[in-house]
């Protein structure tokens, strides 16, 4: 099934609504950048560079995009300002493709990994626990048998929130008392999930960044203990970032990618913010695929990331 078949009208509307503030912000700036100009020249490119940087795309990624557009202008000789958004769409979509961001068709996991183990990392407050709950809902909706593991044993609120989500979604959760060894919770979760034929296991972890060495040691220990139950676990280390924090999300990504081998990203809270451009910058800078984006509070408001639809929503069809 192709991307244009599975990306429903409802999903498109949710995406458009979630990115509306970013789109409004970007378009108003682009309109000012090309005011009074009929063709793309150095002044327009300088203005566009400022637009992208102030839209939280990031300096390095912005320079790549501008360089690509310069090449197009040089090659095609005359590019009108009316063509600019179309070129932006094409070049940013191409950039995301080069950074291994592929369009997912649905909430699926590899059939040859059972259970498929996802270890979720991220600082407190980014929507980590909520994202886990929504993922569990989507996987269960897709017919998967899902287990949750509450390995953030340092915050009572984190465990309580995950328990609420497990009850809401109707999936089992493995937890221990506060202050327990997180690796022990992960071991118990995987053991129980494996014994009961689970398809997907999602493990929550503590979101403390005050000491990177401690964080690294803790995450490494959790992963090593998982391997005792399932040798190639975790299959996915999913970093959750709050898109509304803009450049601060870059710093969090830097810290976590230094502490553990992150291989997937979820960017939350894109609704209600004008900083949606951060998705492009983070994907490009860290070369880690964005798998999911959060566009609201509802269970259906976590979407698999589709680069073409994302770019179309951001810069217009």
TrEMBL record:
Mitochondrion in keyword set:
no
Q: Which GO terms describe its biological process?
A: SRP-dependent cotranslational protein targeting to membrane
Residues in a coiled coil are none
Q: Name one GO molecular function term.
A: GTPase activity
Where does the record say this protein resides?
Answer: Cell membrane; Cytoplasm
Record keyword GTP-binding present? yes
Q: List cellular component terms (GO).
A: cytoplasm; plasma membrane
| Listed name of the protein | Signal recognition particle receptor FtsY
* Primary gene name: ftsY
